[in-house]
Amino acid sequence: MDEADGRRWVVLAVGLGATIAGCMFQYGLPYLIPALRRSGLSLGEAGLVVVCPTVGLMAALIAWGAAADRWGERIVLSLGLGAAGAALLAAAAAQERPALMGAGLVAAGAGGASVHAAGGRLILGWFAARERGLAMGLRQTSTPLGIGLAALLYPPLAGGGLGVPLLVTAVCCAAAAGLVALLVRDPRRDDAPQDAARTAAPYRTPVLWRLHAASALLVVPQFTVGTFALVFLIDEHRWDAATAGRALAAVAVAGAAARIAAGIWSDRAGTRLRPLRLVAAAVTAVMAALAAGTAAGSPAAVAVLLVAGVITVSPNGLAFTAVAEHAGRAWAGRALGVQNTAQNAMAVLAPPAAGALIGGTGGYPLAFAVAAAFGLAAVPLVPAGTGRIRRRASTARARAGRRRPARPRSTASPSPTEP
After folding, report:
1. What pLDDT, in 10s, does the model give residues 132-142?
2. Residue 389 and residue 407: Cα distance in Å, rounded?
3. Deepest of 2, 49, 148, 355, by most Cβ within 10 A of its Cβ?
């Protein structure tokens, strides 16, 4: 293994750790709701506190993406995670004042947004086209892993007060920022001449807009299942909470593996778009089956729910890779910022909307059917064509270009996806 080959995996590992640190508090704060309620907050007030990081996240994603495009990933990741750690310390100090704690969490979410806007650009720059699906699939395991880590750490740590889990998360963010500064190196920032026109203004064609829209629609089935699976198993099928929690933890691990498998599939197929369309169709089918099984009162609905928990999370890596490749490295940060903003906006809206449907006369069958309709709407939005990946530069040549930047023949970066 040469130095460049080892470096790219180090960069991926450090980027994965950085994103896990961000996802812990961005998506894992619901595990602090019992502690927030013990502190005197109502359920509604606790709900407002736990969405504060998402508010900051959505406000800052595109700005961090533009910064990464201009100044590079290393500085953006280290500054963003450092700012998130400082804001979490402030939130921990203000635990007795919910409004100030919420403001600190909004600021932490804004700083932590850097991991979503910049991490994908590192993969685009360090990995050749035939390996990016695997690399992005590995990176996309950060969300379930971060949520799982929060599930393991936050409830016991909260026994010592709300400030303890926030302090621990602040230390994780600071450690991740330090590792990024020490170990991450930005890939070469020059684009091949033949790609300059494509990367100059990728939003002049509808490809990226369609990918953003399809990805946002696919968030609805993912978050409908992810938010209400535990309650569904307990209320509708009389599972005890501990058993349901263990089953869903296994589903989360399987979902992470599914993201990796989807990435490997797209690498071998030489396209991101066809696998993405097929996975979107599979999401639609499994949600329709879940709605039908639930309406019929079939015990098989439990098995379908568990399968849905795996399939609905699997498209993320495919969509992110397709967006980054089509945007090109000159625009990837901003494109990934838009991608994350659209998905997080839908993630905020989907759970309360699904909850209203479940609480109404339609119940779970209607909520699952509506989620299936969103999946169905996403299928035709995935751009047509095979989206074949051009591989003009070999992996060895791409690595050599990063190792010996002065050589004229090594200036080409891996080519973006053809829509």
Report:
1. 888 888 888 88
2. 25
3. 49
Number of H helices and number of E strands within the chain? 19, 0
pLDDT digits (tens, 9 = 90+) for 321-364: 899 888 887 888 788 888 988 998 898 888 888 888 988 888 99
Distance CA 210, CA 380 (A): 9
Place of tokens 């996309």: 140
Report how far apart, in Å, the C-alpha atoms of 89 and of each of 49, 55, 105, 198 are.
16, 18, 10, 43
Place of tokens 């929060």: 150
Predicted confidence at residue 43, as pLDDT, reads 66
DSSP string, 304-342: HHHHHHHHTTTTHHHHHHHHHHHH-TTTHHHHHHHHHHH
DSSP state of 416: P
- pTM assigned to the model: 0.74
For the packed helices 207-237 and 241-269, what is the interaxial angle rounded to 10 degrees? Answer: 150
Contacts of 277 (CB under 8 A, 6+ apart): 379, 382
Q: Are 37 and 43 spatial neighbours (Cβ–Cβ below 8 Å)?
A: yes
| CA 53 centroid distance within chain | 14
Per the DSSP assignment, residues forming a β-bridge with 271 are: 388
Tell me which residue of 165, 167, 46, 174 sits closest to 111, measured CA to CA.
174
Q: Look at the block and give the residue holding tokens 């002065």.
A: 406
